[in-house]
Amino acid sequence: xxTFSLLLFSMSIIMALISALKLPADNELCSDMLPxxxxxxxxxxxxxxxxxxxQKKNQKLNTKNYNKSAIIKLLPQLYIExxxxxxxxHLANTTIIIEKVNYFLDNYLIPASQNKxxxxxxxxxxxxxxxALCERYLNRVWSAASDNNIQEAIAAYNxxxxxxxxxDNLYWQMKNNCQ
Length: 179
Fold this sequence. Notes:
The chain is mostly helical. It has two domains: 2-62; 68-178, Up-down Bundle (Four Helix Bundle (Hemerythrin (Met), subunit A)). 82% of the residues lie in helices and 0% in strands. It is built from six helices and no strands. α3 (68-88) runs antiparallel to α4 and α5 (121-146) runs antiparallel to α6 (150-178).
């Protein structure tokens, strides 16, 4: 569907440009190609709508929906698993580090940031910022491991663990305040 929409858009723009090149004949207000130009613009708008709808449909399919009881287990479990991997990271190669970082991001940080836990807005803002910082450090770990720079990956991982600890502390603080 995406390919069709892009092809339709491209062809519509080409048609519109070609039809716009013809000048009107003498004593006429507009070119006889005006209907083709209008049809091309309509097709271009339709293709943009098709792309938009397809993107919205893909977003709904890609979003993991966790209930609020599942989110309770996500954030504390992240810190525990990151601490366990801290003991192994010195022995791990870059492929293992990248896979583990992807695991943390896909299973903990991204679902946690997509969920809407509501208690007090100030507490949520702090926890979302801490999640973003942890995600940023994990992205640094991933980047350093991709460049085969193990020492930089380990240093960034230590920062990520500190950020995960902050997420864990803020989460429990928020959870206790909401009860």
